[in-house]
Amino acid sequence: MVSMSKQQASEALKKAALNEEVKTYLLQNPLLYNLLLKAARRYIGGETLEQALETRQKLQANGFATSLEFMGESVSTTDEANEATQEFLKIIKALKVENKPDRVSLDLSHLGLFLDKKLGTENFTLLAKACENSQIDLFISAEGMDRTDEILNTYLMFSKEFPNINITLQAYLHRSKQDLEQILQNSRGKIRLVKGAFDGPKELHLPRSTELNKRYLELFETLVRAGRYCSIATHDPKLLEQILAIIKQNNISQYEFEMLYGIGTETLQKLKEQSHPCRHYIVYGKEWYLYLCNRIAENPDNVFKALVDIIELS
Ligand SMILES: Cc1cc2nc3c(=O)[nH]c(=O)nc-3n(C[C@H](O)[C@H](O)[C@H](O)COP(=O)(O)OP(=O)(O)OC[C@H]3O[C@@H](n4cnc5c(N)ncnc54)[C@H](O)[C@@H]3O)c2cc1C
Question: What is the atom index within ligand 1 of the atom nearest the CA of 235?
Fold first, then answer.
């Protein structure tokens, strides 16, 4: 009998996620669309901004902070980039009206940066200004390894003018230690520390391993020692234990725990009960298919959760 390892299952799911034919077939079939949407609801705040704001309100009522993202990346037309920018402006306006400014997070490729640098920069300027006026923290996500330079340079350029712009650093990249030095010397913003989600050349990054966790801890210690605010964005229980020990030993206060909505919910709840600042990262929108596949691929056991969601919610 041929048995499949979790690693193989994960790789197969990632490939399936990128298969446009499969995606189109699934999403154009109303029955399949609705079944998959039931599974996706565990991980998304909704398909519309209104639904995401409701999700956010419930979490805030329970004492959590939130990040909000309109899902999408790597647009292929100017119209798509501008539409995404308009949607982000709607989020910023909605958060301002609520008078509970919080955090907005985005991929620069969603605004068109990798389609047309001028377009992406102009769109990002609009959002940076709107966030500054509304006292909202704007976080730039980290993307594929071929995009790190452009994203870092854009962050450093904007950070000079906008103190509320913040960056995500991927611990798995070998270059991240040097990038962190540059960030610490040339910017003021908060830093979200993640392990890293994208595949890429082996020589550029570490796979999931104790070595990667060690590097994550080193980066964490470097940035908090420099007095910078760290958003600790991992669901890894072992790593979290080690981070908690460092926080306690060194009396660190410039941090929070941030996890993807629908993942690590119980862990985040426990951390909140122990009085640690905690944040859920909520994504919303209609482009949830790839997002769902990625969450399942990260932990193939989530397939069972998806099946239960589909059956229970039917
Ligand atoms: C707030 C936030 C923002 C992020 N932004 C970016 C970004 O901008 N760029 C980027 O490259 N990556 C980003 N990521 C993703 C990140 O890089 C990792 O790919 C992802 O968080 C999984 O890694 P991990 O650190 O949780 O631990 P892993 O080493 O991947 O997993 C360790 C353990 O965590 C738990 N776990 C991890 N994932 C899941 C899951 N899907 N379901 C259930 N349990 C799970 C399991 O117990 C697993 O054994 C972000 C993550 C978070 C939380």
Answer: 26
Burial zone of 122 (CB within 10 Å; 0-12 exposed, 13-18 middle, 19+ buried):
middle
Q: Examine residue 154 and state whether it is found in any structural domain, yes or no.
A: yes
- The whole domain housing 102 covers 45-284
Quick one: which of 43, 124, 52 has its CA closest to 82? 124
Residue 224 lies in a domain: yes
Place of tokens 């909605």: 94
Please tell me whether the overall predicted TM-score, pTM, comes out greater than 0.90 for this model.
yes
**Top mutation candidate among 140, 213, 235 for ligand 1, by most atoms within 8 Å of CB:** 235
Q: Cβ neighbours of residue 276 under 8 Å, at least 6 residues apart?
A: 247, 255, 256, 257
The predicted-structure confidence for 125-171, as pLDDT tens digits, reads as follows 999 999 999 999 999 999 999 999 999 999 999 999 999 999 999 99
The per-residue pLDDT for range 9-48, each reduced to its tens digit, is 677 777 777 777 777 777 788 888 888 899 999 999 999 9
Amino acid, res. 8: Q
In the block, which residue shows the tokens 């796979």? 207
Structural domain includes residue 176: yes
In a domain? residue 205: yes
Identify the residue whose tokens are 């104790």. 210
235 CA → ligand 1 middle, Å: 6
* CB distance 142 to 168 below 8 Å: yes
Q: Which residues contact 141 (CB under 8 A, 6 or more apart)?
A: 69, 105, 106, 107, 108, 168
CATH number of the structural domain spanning residue 173: 3.20.20.220
- State the total domains in the chain: 1
The strand pairing partners of 282, in sequence order, are 68
